[in-house]
Amino acid sequence: MENVDNLVLKLFEIEALKFGSFTLKSGIQSPVYFDLRVIVSYPSLMNEVADFLWQAAEKPNAKFVLLCGVPYTALPLATIMSANHNVPMLIRRKEAKDYGTKKMIEGKFKPGDTCLIVEDVVTSGSSVMETADSLSKVGIVVTDAVVLLDREQGGKQRLEHKGINLYSVCGMSGICKILEKHGKLDSPTVKQVDDFLAKNIFKPDTSGVKLTEQVSKKSKKSLRYHERAEIVAHPLSKQLLKIMDSKQTNLAFSVDVTKCQQVLELVDKVGPHVCIVKTHVDIIEDFNDDFITALQKLADKHNFLIFEDRKFADIGNTVKHQYSSGVYKINQWAHITNAHSVPGDGVVQGLKDVGLPKNRGCLLIAEMSSTGNLATGEYTKATVKMAEEQADFVIGFICTSRLTDDPRFLHMTPGVQLSAGGDSLGQQYLTPNIVIGDRGSDIIIVGRGIYKADDPSNAAKLFKEAGYEAYLKQSVDFTITEQ
Ligand SMILES: O=c1ccn([C@@H]2O[C@H](COP(=O)(O)O)[C@@H](O)[C@H]2O)c(=O)[nH]1
User: Fold this and answer.
1) According to DSSP H, which parts of 154-288 are helical?
2) Which end of the chain, N or C, is surrounded by fewer C-beta atoms within 10 Å?
3) Which of the listed residues 167, 187, 213 is the one where a domain comes to its end?
């Protein structure tokens, strides 16, 4: 099997990938256009593409006993996949026949059968959704879709919102990198595509397809860390912003290993590059009080805050004890902890009772990084409101994008790696550039990307640089907008 670079180069050669100025279906001007219709003239390339699609869809969690291509370009691709892997196919009509059976879906199936949707290009995800809707009307279950080229304009997220996982062979930014690497694109064109992507994202959870207001988000004055440090009231937020400013980092390290010594060794290596070390103390097998003393020493040595990712989620009275008593006594050593908003504001009140006297701060989990999570839409909005009402203790959010322009709140985003993707248990990864640059978050939270690396210290340095560069770029964009 050839690698993705070769595939991208071939697609470029046959002009399936075009760069210039194009008016999309939505009326938007785009510097790039994918026209996969031409591949029907290249049978061996069609075979290759079908192979890549199959490999991308062959995920442990993907559920399908049937295949269905989105009409028309993906139909022959689905056909090849079906024939090569002996998975029966369905055909979705674009219009019902006005004679005979009037069926929208051709092929054999029974209600409850699972079907993988195959698509050539995804922008907003609406074509995949239309096909999924037609299939579900006749009782077919769709939880997975595969696409050759993801334009990375929010289609994946919109589909996830509807419970459909989207797997892609390559994304717009990856394609640009490959073409630039092979001398087919110059860097101004790549920059043009990056800028286009930053400003043209289709947002989930809206009625109808609507573009986000990325432009206005960026053109609003994005305060620098030191400016924000001056205006925030909570001493912990002030301290954190000052650390971010002086250490030039927006990286939080999630040290999810299970032995005290491992934690301490990793933290000592990674400490110079981070503003926060995040723990899950309940996964540590040999937890003891000396461990906490040693961790605190490292926090002083390297100047970072400690965030215990406890995710409290009970009634106020219970969380108060969970936070201050038991084996871990979290409020005695963790500068920051977090809570789900699902129990109502009693959870914040309970934590605050024993946290505020020690100058601790809390983050509310307004969104999650995992696929299919329920912290979306109205839940997220209600969480932001809860934070606003308890801003003396709530210092920010766990979220996947900026939720409010109120500078008091720090936005921290987990699910970050140097390239987008996911794990086999539903974790979803975005890059530092997307999280900080496009989505306006403040802090990236990275676990396996660092502690599983051969050289965790160097990996942390790379994340730190990528996150900080994205923050600086935001400020540059702001300056340009202001002129
Ligand atoms: O929505 C959430 C909330 C918390 N997390 C936590 O962040 C780290 C991520 O680890 P990786 O190894 O970088 O995937 C982990 O501790 C989670 O519990 C999250 O991932 N998503």
Assistant:
1) 155-161, 172-181, 187-199, 214-219, 225-231, 235-247, 260-270
2) C
3) 213
Mean pLDDT of the region 192-202: 85
Checking if the pLDDT of 414 tops 50, the result is yes
- 124 and 272 both lie in a single domain: no
Q: In the chain, how many domains are there?
A: 2
Label residues 365-385 b or e (16+ Cβ within 10 Å = b).
Answer: bbbbbebeeebbeebbeebbe
Paired with 18 in beta bridges are 33
Query: 25 near 200, Cβ under 8 Å?
Result: no
User: What size, in residues, is the chain?
Assistant: 483
414 CA to middle of ligand 1, Å? 5
| Domain, as residue range, for 20 | 4-213
**CATH code of the domain in which 476 resides:** 3.20.20.70
Do 126 and 111 belong together in one domain? yes
- Which of these three, 149, 180, 213, is where a domain ends? 213
Residue nearest to atom 3 of ligand 1 (CA): 368
* Residue 226 CA to its chain's centroid (Å): 27
Report how far ligand 1's centroid is from the alpha carbon of 71 (Å). Answer: 38
The H or E element that residue 77 is part of is: helix 74-85
d(CA 269, CA 263): 10
Chain centroid to CA 58: 21
Q: Is 415 in the pocket of ligand 1 (CB under 6 A)?
A: yes
Taking residues 55-83, report their average pLDDT. Answer: 93
Per-residue pLDDT band for 483 (boundaries 50, 70, 90) equals very low
Active-site entry in 314, 329, 353, 461: 314
Q: Is 239 in the pocket of ligand 1 (CB under 6 A)?
A: no
Residue-level pLDDT at 350 = 98
ipTM over the 0.95 cut-off? yes
Cα angle 134, 140, 141 (rounded to 5 degrees) comes to 105
Asked if residue 369 has its Cβ within 6 Å of ligand 1, the reply is: yes
Evaluate whether 160 touches 124 at the Cβ level (below 8 Å).
no
| Cα(109)–Cα(66) distance, integer angstroms | 8
**Which of 160, 255, 256 gets mutated to test ligand 1 (max ligand atoms within 8 A of its CB)?**
256
pTM: 0.60
Pocket of ligand 1 contains residue 5 by CB under 6 Å: no
Q: Which of 220, 311, 329, 461 is catalytic?
A: 311
Report the distance separating Cα 142 and Cα 114, nearest Å.
6
Reduce the DSSP state of residue 401 to 3 states and report it: coil
- 274 and 237 co-located in one domain: yes
Nearest CA to ligand 1 atom 4: 414
SS3 track for 91-102: EECCCCCCCCCC
pLDDT in tens, 7-39: 999 999 999 999 998 877 655 778 999 999 999
Give the position, in ligand 1's atom list, of the atom nearest the Cα of 448.
12
